[in-house]
Structure formats: structure tokens, C-alpha cells
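Hi there. Long-time user, first ticket. I'm pasting a complex I've been working with (about 376 residues overall). I'd like to know whether the download I got is complete or cut off, because the file seemed smaller than I expected. Thanks.
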Amino acid sequence: MDTIDITIIGAGVIGLAVASCVAGKGRSVFIFEKNGSFGQEASSRNSEVIHAGIYYPAHSLKAKMCVEGKHLLCELCEAAHIPHKRIGKVIVARDVAEIPLIESLMRRGKNNGVDDLCIIDKRALNRLEPHVCGFCALHSPSTGIIDSHRLMQVLLSKATEREADILYGVEVLGAEKVHAGYVVRSRNMQGDESSFFSRMVINCAGINADTITQSVGINVQQAGYVVYPCKGEYFRVNAEKASLINRLVYPVPDAVSLGMHLTPDLAGGVRIGPNATYVDRNHIMYDVGEQQRKEFFTLAQRLVPSLEEEDIFPDTAGIRAKLQGPGDEIRDFVIAHEDKKGFPGFINLLGIESPGLTASLAIGKYVGTMVNEVLH
Ligand SMILES: Cc1cc2nc3c(=O)[nH]c(=O)nc-3n(C[C@H](O)[C@H](O)[C@H](O)COP(=O)(O)OP(=O)(O)OC[C@H]3O[C@@H](n4cnc5c(N)ncnc54)[C@H](O)[C@@H]3O)c2cc1C
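Hi, the file is complete. Here it is re-exported in full:
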């Protein structure tokens, strides 16, 4: 049976960031990706926002990884010429009742180390965003946007330069604990199955991360590791109206998501979304229905009143890998070496929803430290 040092399951931005940090030092590192290329799931179906770190509870991994990750990301963008822009963002309070929410977001952001936030009044908001309607807003000048595809290309190059290998069209079916490692079972696109021995397994499988965890022998219900796929759909604003906003425009967040926002992209377009709907993992579809127009238009027009219903049209969708099920409290990322559960060498990443793209490099670094403790 073939023997390798590290198996990474999944070539989204997280698997690639992890690979770029753990490869090298003479280790044999293989990334397994079930699709025909990297980054075809959540990592290419998101808002491409570099978040500042405002929303997440103090001391959470989300807060820590987001704030550290955005700095690492900006350095990498400069060094590797990855297209990005610090366009800034406003979180808009529509009326007096929403002011306490804005104030608590400001306190939370400051606690997390985001030191450039300020609350601006209606007049200042109008100067920044003449077409946006609001009573006041939280202004985050350092929030930005990034070309996530280019980021993943750069991470993949870094990993392969350090001699990591990537295998496309190979699905990992499961991993079984044996002495000093794991027997990993996989299947290629022709349906051929094979097994190999891996000293470590790093689970970056997005919405399938709980299935991989269960296969290793961890009871995902008991561990609180069930992943609830949650679809986020986008509409696009037509080109003539895209210039109505200059920066990211958000409402105050709701219990499940950051709220449907208007996001400029690097090509000069603007998207509205994402909404948030829990979906069945066996029926994942990325379609966005025309019938949603009313919902998107109503929310977008509250922020930008001069938008008209025919100015928007259905665009893409992505699926969040949430540990927070319907009606549950907000959950943090899980990034754990599962040795205490009896699975040394198995590193588990679950619930890597937003701000996972922003946090990706910090997560890679964090996992790199865990791996160094096991492989020395
Ligand atoms: C709608 C939406 C908007 C978002 N907006 C933002 C944002 O603006 N800013 C931000 O920072 N974050 C954002 N995020 C979060 C961010 O996109 C994710 O945190 C990040 O992409 C997660 O990366 P990942 O590698 O864990 O997952 P994925 O990109 O889903 O990658 C997982 C990979 O694992 C592969 N895989 C799964 N099972 C197997 C298997 N058994 N064998 C082999 N391969 C397997 C999949 O094919 C996939 O390629 C958003 C997410 C969504 C859905």
C-alpha cells in the first residue's frame, strides 16, 4: 500500500491555504479534490469581500482568524499581484431603532482589534454614498474586495512549488484509523477505488466535512459537528445602475447571515445578496430563480431607493457550510486536532463559513502549527 505523510481533503481556498503552509520539509503532501478543478464550490461562489472583523464574538476563532487573515491577505495580494481593492463599507441603520445595533457592532469590532471604525451621520453617509438611504451608518474604511480565483491560483502554486501534489476528480470516501495513521479510501471519476496509508489527514471538505469526520469514527451528532448547508443566492444590478454605489453597502445583520448587501466587484459590477436558505445536502442546486426578484428588489431598494425592479437579474449562488442549524445559536469555526477524541493526526476543519475566505491564510498558518507538533 502507498504511504504518504499528509492527505488534504478538498481544494477550496482552505485546503489550498493549508497545503501552502504544510508542504515542504521533505513531506509528501497530496490534495484530493472530487471536482475537475480547484475552488468550484463555496470558494468561488461568495461575495469576495475581505472582511474587517466586525461581526464575530470576542475571542472567537472567527474574530481572531479574520483580523489576522485580512492582514496576511493584503500582504500576499501586494506581493503576488492579486487583484484587490480597499473600497470600504457602510453598515446602514435605516432608522433610530437600529442605532443600538450599529453601536454594538462598533464595540464588537473594536474589541476584535478593528481600529478604524466610526459611526457617521446621515449627512456624511450622503457624501460617501449619495444614493444610499439611511439614518446613520458604521463606516469601515479597510473592508475590501479580492479576486478569489487568482488567490487560489497563487496558493496552489505555492503548494506545488513546495512539492505538494493535487489530484482532481478523486473523491475521498473515508478514512479509517490504524496504527500510526489512517487508511484513506478514494474513488476516481471512472469509479475505480483505491486505498493508501497516510500519517495525517486534514479535512477541508466544506459541506462534506461532517461525512468525512463520521467515516473516521467520530459521532458528529454528539460532537456538534453536523454541517447544515445553507444556500446564498445573488442577483446582479444592470451595468447602468452599478455606479449608484461606490463601496460595500450592508444592512444591519440578522441571526443567520450578514444580511443581503450590495457588493461591487473588481470588474465594476454590483451584486445583491446573499440571502440564506437551509437546503437538503442531497439536492444541492446553484440555480437562482426569477421568482426571487421581488424579495431581492425589496431589500435592495430599502438601501438604494432609486433602483427599479427591472434593474436586477438572477446571478450565482453558493452554499455555506454552517454548524449553526435552523434556530440555533451562532457557531464558531471548528479547527481541531482530534487527538483528544482518540484520533491523533486527524485535523478537522468544520463550519468554515464566512469569513473563511478572509481568514484563509490565518487558518493555513494555524493548521501548519498543529501539523508541526505532530510531524516535527
Ligand atoms: C454565499 C457565500 C458568501 C460568502 N461571502 C464571503 C465573503 O465575502 N468573505 C469571506 O471571507 N467569506 C465569504 N464566504 C465564506 C467563504 O466562501 C468560505 O468560508 C470558504 O470558501 C470556505 O472554503 P473551503 O475550502 O472550506 O470550502 P469549499 O470552497 O467548499 O471547498 C471544499 C472542497 O472540498 C471538496 N470536497 C468535498 N468533499 C470531498 C471529498 N469527499 N473528496 C474530495 N474532495 C472533496 C469540494 O469539492 C470543494 O472543492 C461566503 C460563503 C458563501 C457560501
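A couple of notes from our side: The first helix runs from residue 13 to 22. The mean pLDDT is 96.
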